[in-house]
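User: Please predict the structure of the protein below. I'd like the answer in structure-token form so I can feed it into my own downstream comparison script.

Assistant: Understood. Taking the following sequence of 281 residues as input:
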Amino acid sequence: MVYESNKTMKTILVVNGEKYWKDILSAYNVVQKSIQHTSWILKSGKLHVADAESVVQPDAILWRVGAIKPTELQRTALNLIELSGVPCVNSPATLKIGYDRLSMLATIKSLGLPVIDFNVVTKSTHLKNIKMEFPFVVKVGNYHGGYGKVLVEDAEKWQDIKDLLFVTDYYITIEPYIRYVRDIRYIAINDKVWAMSRKGKFWKANIETTDFEEFDPEESLVNDLKRLQNDIGADIIAIDILEEENGKLHIVEYNDIPGLSGFTDELKYELAAVLTRALEH
């Protein structure tokens, strides 16, 4: 399945992300570049993106910058995309809302969704003022995809972690460890929603995932996801949920650049269709 176009071949820039987009978007000139190696130029209102291999003037952008360290270059690039008017999925305005974990969590809380309770300090010296029962989870800074996260199970490990955190300049988030029976991801692309449960090799369900199982989405969670999607204007969005044995649900985070692993290939084509519709219209 490919998307066809009767117009002159246009250029789609895929920023980071998976390598299969050239096959899915084969009717277009698909160029893939890593944000870490790019320079961005706005000249006479036209956007140009350069790296050591080439300079491209994209007609549309598929932004797939995932679990890497967020940088000012990323934010600057999103601002330049917005100024140029080049179609981007998700839009720069949406991506900038979720650029930082704290703004992402604030968005979830503002909608009254069941986010995990959390504490935040901007200096590690204030960790002594955070009193929580073991075990709990410590997250450093703005990372996604399981990076910068550690499970603290006892006082000895907590002391070691505090000593290590002394060297970081990032804010630190501390939250209770949820003894979950299911880790669930819901993904919405436009008006379609899919749901999947995951199991990880260790306590992080999204690291070294060993099992995926799609299931029919539950209406209440679909409604919550759609409210969030509409609030931030997302073409694609996922929420990651932990379910306790008693059925209680906790939203860990939302992800506006979610990975599609484990889901049917239908999602890839739906996401491609969102971009090509924006490009052609």
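That's the full token string. Residues 266-280 form the longest helix (15 residues).
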